[in-house]
């Protein structure tokens, strides 16, 4: 069986490219890509299918190349797969459904399996618009089993059966590195070394009301780890594959959630001598960090910790997660920021405006607090989004119930609010976002002036990404 795995259409209706991260949120990036995330769920799926089935499998990242609708359809028609698998999120859902409808006409026998957040949230609609099957939630194992059975035998996780058990991440092979190569996903915002992404853990117990990966992919609070040995082996593999490699970005949900695991990983990195060879940065939470953990992370080569804060206002933080973890402990946050500053570990905060329970004044106060923390050396960078109620999340369900959603609004956390919160209309959310964006850009300019070297501006390292700008249809993909 010929299986083609693809990311969705790579451009919005107005021609903008998309920084695609369906597990988190995707945003329009304009004429060129600002950040290139490796499509890791599809990468793992491709590796599983190649290892565990006799299928001829190919993974094409249409998003990376900014492939638009017409080129997408012609590409699939040319490759003539028997099965097409596409992971889709809200920013591009309607355009990808258009592709499916056109493919139905051109390739009547093609079997289309849709997965990812939008099909998981709207399986019936996805089926009505051209998909044959929908995989709900985390899909590497369910789609592999389904295809191994010839797409005939129902398996958990393939709609209408309920979602499958969570994936055993230790049992996954290394993600695809032939059809697409991890080295090419090198433009990573905020990274200071020539880094690629790696996933040592999966899951997060916090269950924020807007979070796609925990609510839609996993469906419940969870936290899974890989063995330290397998992580070290993957790093060694990447070093051999990528001679210019200077660092690793553990781009997970909650890298440091399990204190014991982080300690074991740090000791493993040190024992392997990797603390002298590479620098590490990670996406995590602050509530499990303490002096001992941060000292060990520093010794292991961690130079930056990215923390999902969303807001620095206690009342707002409490609204985002009812789990009692992370978002509402300002005393702990201050302690962790102080420790990081003492140890020389940089802090990158992720913030958003327009969360449930926020007001314009609170969002501005939160942004001003970040400015002060930056000026005092506690936070070195931050990213900012408009908190967007993506389908399948509790935030979206509530926004629908309460009638907050604006008619015809898209789902782009980088441009434009899609809802009017009580007492906080979309226009004010956008004003707060514009204010925060100016602040973020000023901080970045300040960092550059102080000599910070972001690898996303490194033209040699990012040459594969720059090469996609101005690409003509048909180039680079076949
Ligand atoms: S902290 Fe919240 S947004 Fe981040 S991964 Fe966990 S649940 Fe999702």
Would you kindly provide a written description of the structure presented here, covering whatever features stand out?
The protein is α/β, with parallel strands linked by helices. The chain folds into two domains: 2-170, 3-Layer(aba) Sandwich (Rossmann fold), CATH 3.40.50.280; 181-464, Aldolase class I (TIM Barrel, Alpha-Beta Barrel), CATH 3.20.20.70. Helix 2 packs across helix 3 (93-106). It has 17 helices and 15 strands. The strands form four sheets. The chain has a six-stranded parallel β-sheet with strand order 8-11-12-13-14-15. A five-stranded parallel β-sheet has the order 4-1-5-6-7. Strands 2-3 form a two-stranded antiparallel sheet. It has helices at residues 40-52, 69-79, 93-106, 117-121, 123-128, 140-148, 212-218, 228-241, 259-271, 274-277, 291-300, 314-320, 330-343, 360-375, 394-402, 426-449, 463-466; strands spanning 2-6, 17-19, 27-30, 56-60, 83-87, 111-115, 133-134, 195-198, 201-202, 224-225, 247-250, 279-284, 302-310, 346-353, 381-386. The structure holds iron/sulfur cluster. Iron/sulfur cluster (SF4) binds next to helix 7. Residues 204, 206-208, 211, 213-214, 253-254, 285, 308, 326 line the site of iron/sulfur cluster (SF4).
